[in-house]
Amino acid sequence: MKIDLKKVGAWFDDRLALTPIFKYMTKKEVPQHSHSIWYYTGSSILLFLMIQIVTGIMLALYYKPTLEGATASIGRIMTELPLGWLVRSIHSWSATFMIAFVMVHLLAIWFTKSYRKPREATWMTGMMLLVVSMVFGFTGYLLPWDDLSLSATKVGTNIPAAIPVVGKWVTQFLRGGDDVTGDTLTRFFLFHVCILPLVIFAILVVHILLVQKEGMSVPLKDEIAKKKVPALPFWPNFILREVIIWMVLLGTLLTLALVFAPSLGLPADLMAPAPEGVKPEWYFLFLFQTLKIFPANMGPVTGEFVAVVLILLAVVAIFFLPFLDNKPDKKKGKIFTWLGVLGVIYAIVFSIWSLL
Amino acid sequence: MRIDNAYFTRRKFLNSLLGGWLGTLAVTFISPIVKFVWPPYKEPDEVKLAFADYSGMKTGEVKNFPWGNKPGLLRRAEDGSFIAWVGVCTHLDCNVSWMPDKKKFFCACHEGWYDENGTNVAGPPPKPLRRLETAVEGEDFFVRKPVPGAKA
Which of residues 229-288 of A touch B (CB under 8 A)? Predict the structure, then answer.
């Protein structure tokens, strides 16, 4: 029997109403100007997210989220399963790349001020995605359950406890009790593979729809001058360029994953003293160093409390940045650009300082 | 519709009644979920150890013991008595270790130091190590949480 593909296509189109989507894709245009390169950071994040999903599912086939089995199961993945060490290495490296690109994406939008009206909500959902990505990293870091990851988790989950009243409650929720135990590991696994994926998809859908709704932002000076910016068709021209960038990134990722595979320490012992050189993942280093420099007590409160409140205020301020920076073309806008530069310098200096 | 001299309409009254009822129903469903998610696992009020394991400790010597899911620290004082602490840093909860050559407790996470009496002397720890009480009863060695209000 001969199947008429056109008829099959029409049948689906009739039921799913796909034509408007295809029409939109062929009509969509991407502006071309000296800052166009930053448009590609978004799709690069999607590439790494897809790699995380595939390698994450592969790892979860053999990983055991229990006190007794966690470290050994990763050992097994790395030594017994065909190319298991590479799957874990790619998962670990792709996480690093994803967070790095999220940060570049955020900074590019900060410095081009693309969050200005009407794209405030896009920025805010983006900030949520950054926080969720970092929680992904934080929960994933515990899963190997070696002594470094245990100490980092004890510190990380104890930080909310510095906030009066609700803090203790948050810490107990994260740990599944007063202390970090095997229950914490099971919980973190659940967050990492079930709850966070649902959350990230929900926010991501809104984020991407908002980007489609408003279209790509053009540089501020062109917008003010009402200059017509040349544009590139999304399909196939822009997609083709994206694919080239994806290939380059994929090659870099695979090379790094092949050469620098992550190590696996001895299983964590809840009773053992904290090892020397406890470090969180690189993207938490500047926060780690910030916590370290505050004195034990500052008047009536602990230094830790002051540090946590300052960090939370900074996050909230960045979340509402489009509303604070509401005159992007005026002198006030320049101040926010420089605050962004200061923030980057602060993060870099504190990260390096924490490694010394 | 409002009855004469009534504070609110009949619709408002019925809506509040229904809303309150639905709210109560929601709480009945949610409260057991919350109880399940926040488990009742607390640290122990006391642990029972075998005294024979610790009676041979020399003056100034420090040994670990399991205090629930975290380590406890035990030091033999000059007068032969025992001093016990919860072995986690008061800064951010890392397990501390005894440095015999310096006669100090050390937390490697953020370089916190405590002297041999558990007092925070350097680094970020805001408070001394948490003290526990000890008691020898026959062959058993008890380590307990101090009674609140009583002097440790």
Answer: 270-278
The answer for residues whose C-beta is within 8 angstroms of residue A89's C-beta and 6 or more apart is A257, A258, A260, A261, A262
CB B134 within 8 A of CB B86: no
Do B68 and B10 belong together in one domain?
Answer: no
Number of neighbouring beta carbons within 10 Å of residue A295: 13
Q: Is residue B54 part of a domain?
A: yes
Going by their DSSP bridges, the two strands B70-76 and B82-86 should be labelled as antiparallel
Tell me, what's the ipTM? 0.77
Whole-angstrom Cα distance, residue A278 to residue A298?
A: 25
Domain interval for residue B59: 46-144
Domains of chain A, CATH where assigned: 36-268 (1.20.810.10)
Identify the closest residue of chain A to B99 by CA–CA distance. Answer: A273
Domain CATH number, residue B137: 2.102.10.10
User: Chain A within 8 Å of B43 (Cβ-Cβ)?
Assistant: yes
- The answer to whether the Cα torsion of A115, A119, A124, A126 is positive or negative is negative
For residue A322, which of A108, A104, A110, A101 has the smallest C-alpha distance?
A110
State the average pLDDT for chain A: 92
Beta-carbon contacts of residue A272 (< 8 Å; ≥ 6 apart): A147, B71, B95
- Mind telling me how many Å the CA of A179 is from chain B's nearest CA? 7
Confidence of residue B150 (pLDDT cuts 50, 70, 90): low
Question: What's the predicted TM-score (pTM) here?
Answer: 0.88
The set of long-range contacts for B73-80, using a CB threshold of 8 Å and a minimum separation of 24, is: B73/B98, B73/B105, B73/B129, B74/B134, B74/B143, B75/B116
The two tokens of residue B30 are: 């949610």
